[in-house]
Structures
1.
Amino acid sequence: MRSEHRVTSVRSQERGTAASATAVAHPNIALIKYWGKHDERLVIPRTDSLSLTLDIFPTTTRVQLAPEAQHDAVTLDGVPLRGEAQRRVIAFLELVRERAGSLQRAVVDTENTVPTGAGLASSASGFAALAVAASAAYGLDLDATALSRLARRGSGSASRSVFGGFALWHAGSATATAAEADLGSYAEPVPVGDIDPALVIAVVNAGPKSVSSREAMRRTVDTSPLYEAWAVSSKDDLNEMRAALHRVDLDAVGEIAERNALGMHATMLAARPAVRYFAPATLTVLDRVQQLRREGTPAYATMDAGPNVKVLCHRQDAGRVAEAVRGAVPDGTVLIAGPGPAARLLHEDGP
Ligand code: 2P0
C-alpha cells in the first residue's frame, strides 16, 4: 500500500494531474468509553478506551486534490457541508497539508451509511476514512499507528476505527509536552481468541442528538461531581476487560461494558445543566435486556451520546436477542452487527 502511494503521487505530478484516493472505514462501539478530554486541540482523552469495530454502516470518502481551487469543497451524501461540520473537515485537511507541505485544496466527497449525529459513531468512521484517503491523496506515507493518531485529530473515536475488531486507544500522558502527548495517544488492535460477539443495535431515534458529544463531554468534565470517580473506575474496568478478553469470557466483557456505560451516563446526568441522552424507549430496551438475562440469555447493554442501545451478546443468541428487542420497541429499527474490518484504501489514482 505504501509503495503504491508514492508511485501514484509521483506519476500524477509527472502528468500534471491531481492525485485522488478513496477509503472506506467502519464505525466502532466503545465497550470502555471515551468521555472527556485533556486537550481539546490535540484531542487527548482523559482515559483509555476500548472498542469493537463493526461490520455495518461503512463510510466511503474520496479525496481529490484540486490544484486550481481556492477553497476545499466538502460534501456529505452529495450535499455540501456547512458550519461546524465543514469547519472540522477543513481543519483536518489543513493538518494533512501542513504535514505534506502542500497548499493544494481538495474536493472531499463522503458517502455515509450510518445515520449522522445519532450516537452511532458516524464521526468515527468518517474521520478514519478521511485520514486514510487524505493522507494517500497528499502523498503521506503513514503506518496504521500514525493514521490512528491522525484520525484522532478529527474525532477521538476515529482513532479506533482505523483498526478492525477490538481496539484499545491509549490516552497518552497528560503531563507530556504537546508533541509527546500527540505521539502517545493512538489506538492499537487487541488480539482476541474465538469470542464470536454480536452487537444488536436498537435504533430508537435516528435523528441528530440534542447536545453534541464534544459539548457534552466538555460540560461533564467541567461541572459533574461524578466525573473523576468514573474516570478512576474506568481504569479498573479497562484492566478487568482486557483480562476478560484474554480469557475469551464474553459474559464478563458484557458486564463490564454495561457498568462502564451506565457510569458514563451517570456522570452526564450529574453535569450542570444535565446531559440526558436516554429516551423512554432507551429504558424499555434496558428493561428487556435485564429480562433476557433473567431468562438465561447473556446480553449486555451499552449506550453512547444518543438514545440508541447496543446489546452485546453471543453470536448464536443474536437472532433471539434482536427479536426480543424488536418486540420491546416496535417503532425502532433493530440491526445485528459483528466485528468489522480495519479502515482501508480502496484505490488511488490520477484522473
Ligand atoms: C466513545 N463517544 O468512546 C464515546 C462514548 C460517545 C460516547 O467517542 O469530540 O465524536 O470528536 O473526540 O469521538 C463520541 O465522541 O468526540 C464518542 P470528539 P467523538 O465512543
Note: The pocket of 2P0 is lined by residues 30, 33-35, 43, 49, 123, 155-157, 213-214, 304-305 (CB under 6 Å).
2.
Amino acid sequence: MENTRQPFFYDITLRDGNQSLKKPWQLSEKEIIFNKLLELKVQAVELGFPASSEMDFEACRYLASIATEKTVVSVLARCVKNDITSAVEAVKHAGTPRIHTFLTLSPFHMKYVLNKDPMEVRKTAIEAVKFAYEEISKANKNGQVEFSVEHFGDCGENLDFVIDTLKEIVKAGATTINLPNTVERKRPRVFLDMIERVYDALPKSVSLSLHNHNDLGMATATTVEGYFSGAVQLECCLNGLGERAGNTNFYEVAVALHNSGVDVPIDLSKIYETALIVSQMSKVEIYEKAPLIGPDALAHRSGIHQDGALKTKDMEFGAYRPIHPSLIGRKDDEKIGFTSQSGKTAIFEIISKAGYPITIQEAIRLTPVIKEAAEKIGELPTRNIIDIYFREICNVQGPFKLTNFDHVEDNKFVVEFKYNDKPFKVTGEGNGPIDACMDALKQAGFERKLLFYKQIAMDEELLGSGAIAMSVIHIEGNNKESIIGRAIHKNTAVANVRAIFNAYNLIYKV
Ligand code: KIV
Ligand code: ZN
C-alpha cells in the first residue's frame, strides 16, 4: 500500500528509553536529550511518566514549558484518574500537549495480569480517554489524546473486540491510536495484517501509530513496513534504547524511509552526533555491528568488498554501504581493515592514506608478506603494515651494498660500496649528497639519470623509530621507466644515498 502522508516521528527516548536505563535521567540530562530531539526536528516527544515520581513530574513540566509551539509534547498516564490529572498538570502549558493513556486489550493480559473481564477493561479505557480528553481540552485548546492498546501484538484472536473498542475510544476523544508490539513474538507480516485491519476499520482522520519492541530484532522492519500499511506515527527511540532488547531504532527507520523515497521530516545529518551523546549519557555502548552508527558499519575487510568500496568511496551510492556516511553526519571514512581476507587494494589504500608513496605493483609484491602477518594476529594495525612496508620497500636486496658514505669537504662526498662483492671507493662531487652520490656511481661505471626526488616527513606517532624523513628517489630504468627507491633514516643525507642504492638494486637485480 502506498502511504501519501508524511511520517510523523514520535520519540520515546525520554519515556520508554529512560524507564529501562540502569540509572534513569535527571531533569538536566533529559533536557540535553530533549534539545537534541528538537535539533533532529522530531514532531513529537514523549517526555516521561509524570505519575511515576516527583522527579519525572518536574522534568515533564519543565520540558513542556520550553518546547517549541508546534512540537507535540506528550506524557504517559495509565487509565487512572490520578495519573491523568498529574499528566495534564505537567503539560498543560505547552503549545501542543498530549496525554498518552494505555491499557492492554490482549486476552492473555486481561486474564492473567489485570485479572479483569474484557468488557470491564473496555469500559475503563473508554472512560479514561473521555476523562483525559475533557481535562486536557479544558486546560489547553490544542490538547490531544493518544490511546495505546498495550500488547496489541497479542490481540490476534480478539481483533474484532479490539477494533470495536477502538471505535468507541475514538468517539471518546482519542485522535491517535497506537498499536504497540509490546513484546515482539511473531513475524512482521502477521502483525502488519492486524495493523491493516485496524486501519481499514477506523476513520481516516485517526492517526494510526506503531510502537514496536525489538525482542526478535525485527522492530525496524515492522515499523518501516507498518508505515506502508497505513501507520503514520512512528514511535522510535534514539540508539534503540527501551525495555529489554529496546524499542524501534529511530535512525534505522528514518534512513530506511529516506532510502525508500519517503519525504522524512528529520534532520538526518544530526543522527551521528546524537547517537554518540545518547550512548555516553545512557552508558549503553554503541555495539560494534550497530547499523549506521556502529564502528564496524563502515568497515570493509574482504578484498572484494574493499575493492568495490574504494572504487565508489566518493560517490553518493556506495558499492558496500547503504548510505553516504555524510547523510547522517558521520565524518569518518569507510574503514579498510587488513586481515587474511584482504588484498592488494587494501595495502595500497592503507599505505597511501598514511602518507607514503606506493605503487600498485609494490602493493602486489607486499601482499603475501602482509597477509602472512595477518594470518597470525588478525586485523593488522596500520603501524604493522607500515613497518613491513619499510622493511620490504626501503631495504631492497641486490648486487649493490652501500658500506660507507662520508662528507669530506664542501661539495665532495666519499661513497664506499660493493657491486657483486667487488669493492669501490669513489669521491663524488655535486650540489648536495644526492648529486655527489650519483656522480660517484657514474665514475664507477654505473651512470643513471635522476628523474625526481622528494622527502616526506614521517609520522612519528606511527613510526616511533626516531626517523625524521623518508627519501623518495626516482631513477630512470632500462626502458626509460621510473624506478623508485626509498629509504628512511634520521640523517637525511644517509636516507638519500640509501634510497639511490635501493633504486639501483631494483634496476640491476637479475
Ligand atoms: O510497549 C508498550 O506497550 C508501551 C505502551 C505504554 C505504549 O510502552
Ligand atoms: Zn513500550
Note: The pocket of 3-methyl-2-oxobutanoic acid (ligand 1) is lined by residues 16, 102, 148, 150, 178, 180, 182, 211, 213 (CB under 6 Å).
3.
Amino acid sequence: MKNIVKKIRFVVILLAVALMSVGKIYSQTGSGTIPKIIEKNGRHAFLVDGQPFIMLGGQAHNSSGWPGMLPQVWFAVKTMNANTLEVPIYWEQIEAQTGKFDFSLVDTLVKQGREHNVHLVLLWFATWKNGSNHYMPEWMKREAGKYPNITGRNGQPVDSPSPHTQAAMEADAKAFAAVMGYLKKSDPQHTVIMVQVENEPGSWGSVRDYSAEAQKLFEGQVPAELLKPEVLKALNRPVVSKGTWIEVFGDNADEYFHAWSVAHYIGYIGAAGKAVYPLPLYVNAALRDPIKNPPANTYESGGATDNVLLIWKVAAPAIDILAPDIYMSGSEQALKVIELYDRPDNTLFVPETGSSQEYARYMYEVFARGGIGFSPFGIDDNGQGASEADITARLAPIAQEYEMFSPMMRELAKWGFEGKIKAVVEREDHAAQTIDLGKWQATVTFSPGGGRSSQPNTKPIGKAMVVQLGENEFVLIGSLCHFTFHPVGVNAGKAWQYLKVEEGKYENGTFKLLRIRNGDETDWGGPRFGALPAVLHTTLITR
Ligand code: DGJ
C-alpha cells in the first residue's frame, strides 16, 4: 500500500514538473485565446492572451526566412530586445508544385519562435511583393497568359500582376487559406499573432491596368459599395447613385479604380484565410508624400496610400489594418503619416521603418496614440558578414527603447488604449514643445545632457512621453530632453514643487524604485533625460 502511495506521489510530482516546464516554454501564450483587435471610442487595442499587447518588433530581410539564415535573425531579435519577429514566408516555396503545400519553413519558424519566446508576424509574400509578382510560384510565372501582368497606358508591359485575373486570385486565396489552416492546426498557443497579406501591393510604373479587359471594367459602373453617400462624401465627391469611374471620380478615377481592384483581390484572399482561422490580418503600404498630394504616377498606385484608405476599407473588410511603412525620416511627413493612419476605422501599426535614432523617436508618437506595434526593417545582417558587435551597435537606438519598454509593455498598451499618453518628438528646428495635462502644462526642451547645456542635440532625436495617472501624477519617459511644468487653469499662478520624482521600472505590473531623483537631478525646472531612456514616476504639488 505504502509503495502505491509513493508511486502515485512520484507520478503527481512528475506531472507537476512537466506542466510547469510547459508553462515556462509557452509563457508567451498564457490564456490560449486567439489574438484580436478591439475598438473603443475610436481607440484600439491588440489583445494577445486576452490582454492589450504592443509589438516591440523587428523585421527580417526579405530572404532571411530560410533556416540557414535564422541564427543571425534570432541574434538580431535578442540584441534589440524585441518581443515580436516579422518574417516572410514565400508562396514560391510553400507551393512550389501546384496544389502541393510544404509547410516545413513555417514549422521551423514557429518552433524557433517558441524556443526564443518571441511572437511571430508572418508576411505572406505572394501575388504582390513591392508591386511585382516575383514571389509567385514558378509554375505561375511560366504561364504569363493565364497569370498576366498589367499593361501600361501606352500598351507597354509593366512588372506588376493584374488584379483582374480570377485564376491568380483563386490560386493565391487557396494557398493562403492552406497556410492559415496549417497555423490553426499547428499553433494552438498562438506564437503567430498576426499575418501580413502580400507586401506593399500596388503598381510602380503605371497608375492602373490599361489592358482591354481592365479597360472594359473601367468603363463599366462603379460598384454599389463605393456609391454609398457616406463613402462618396468622405472622398469629397458628389453623391450619386450610379456612374462610371470617370463620371464618379473624375481625375482620381484611374487610381481609385486600381486601388479598388487591388484591394478587392486582397480582401478576397484575406477572407479566404480568415474563414479558416481568424487571426488579425494587415496590408502594408508604400507611402506617398502625405502633405503634397502628388500625382499617382509618382508613387506606388493602388496600394493603401493615405488618400485611398477608405476605398481599401470598403473593398477589403477582411483586412483589419492598413499599415504605413515609414521610410521618411523628416518629422513633418512622418508625423503626418502617423496621424493619417490613426483613424477610428484603422488601428495604428508601423510594420516597417528605419532603425536609426531619427526613426526610433516615432515609436513614442505611435505608442501615445495607442498604436499596437513598431518594427524596424532589415534587422539581421542579411549574410553580409558583419560582426555581432556591429549588428548590436546598429540596432542600439531601438534596443535601448525596447529594453525600457519591455517590462512595462502591458501597462503601455493599456495606457495607450485608455488615451492616457501624450508624446512629443524633437523636430528638425529643435524647438521646445508643450504638453497640456489639465491643471499642468509640461514644457519639453531637447539637448544632449537633457538640459543645462545651451547646445541643441546634433540631430533631431530627442523624445518624451507623459502618462497621466492622476491630476498631479505622471509617468515621464524620454531621452535627450528636459522636462519642466507650469501650473495652469485652476492652478495658474500658484507656487508649486515636485512632491516626489521616483526613477525605476515597471515589473509585473508594479513600479520598482531605483532611486528618488532630487537635488541636481530635478533642480533647474525639472528632470533631465540623457542618452539612455528612463522612467520617472512623478508627483507634483501646489503650495
Ligand atoms: C519595403 C518592403 O516592404 C520591404 O520588403 C523591403 O523591400 C524594403 N522596402 C527595402 O527597403
Note: Residues 2-25 form the longest helix (24 residues).
